[in-house]
Amino acid sequence: MDWLTRDPDRRLDARRVVEGARSVISVALPYAEGEREVADDDRPRGLIARYARGEDYHRVLLEKVKALSATLGDVDARPYVDTGPVLEKPRAQRAGLGWIGKHTNLVSRAHGSWSFLGAIITRRDVEASAPHADRCGTCTRCLDVCPTGAIRPEEPYGLDARLCISYLTIEHRGPIPRELRPKIGTWIFGCDLCLDVCPWNRFAQPVREARLMPRPALINPVLTELLAWDQATFSATLQHSPLKRTKRRGLLRNVAIALGNAGDRDAVPALALCLRTEAEPLVRGHAAWALGRLGGAAAHEALEAARHDDDPFVRDEVEAALAGR
After folding, report:
1. Which of 40, 41, 56, 82 is catalytic?
2. Alpha carbons 68 and 3: distance in angstroms, whole number
3. Is this prediction's pTM over 0.70?
């Protein structure tokens, strides 16, 4: 995520983005959904961060931010939604929309921590809002629930992205370190654990934008079915979805890890087929890890058959799985 360090001066000074800028307008769009749905059977299913189960929020919110920007009478105004040299969270806190919690997300007294952020840099003078005070107090629920210890308690609040399940399942492109795989659980895109436990979410406002509502295909998806997705299915099912960011190989890598963590040996045939026929070494290697984690005669047989895979990464994963590493 080296892009976060680019153009630090532009991120700190809006006048370097829009010459003569006088104001930054911060906006938030709630997306809370209520309790997660309960599956009607016991097949292993994947978890997807709430924000990603509908249409890509970049498209939805940017449309609204552009419409607001057009009312300012400033042809040079620049709208942003999680793009460009804008530090949305610190600016949202300065604008009074909430405060940056210990989990490093914005928290609002009005709608908890379930919200998307956007910003408009403009030459218009806009009356400044009072910054929001930190109201996390002594609460450490988000720190305590994080399986990987990614959230740091030091001041200022920080997060080690290299340990964050959201980073690992979305932004990280290669093999996920073996020692972290068991801690990912059945998350296949993002993670909501630190947000789920935030006590301020009792004030969360339900999502009102229909395009942000969960798609049926992304509600409790069956992991073995996802593992069988070809590129055409991936592209068609995830059109305008945030999940496309991982590409097919990244999503199936995550699915294989989730199957290994789900602990259901009924998934062994699907993983064995993946190890034998999948074109992407990244996916085959993580399928080998999952087979090793599930164990049993059928899993061992599939791993033995893959010992001479033509990719060195896969061979290494197979040997590690057979050795119980």
Report:
1. 82
2. 28
3. yes
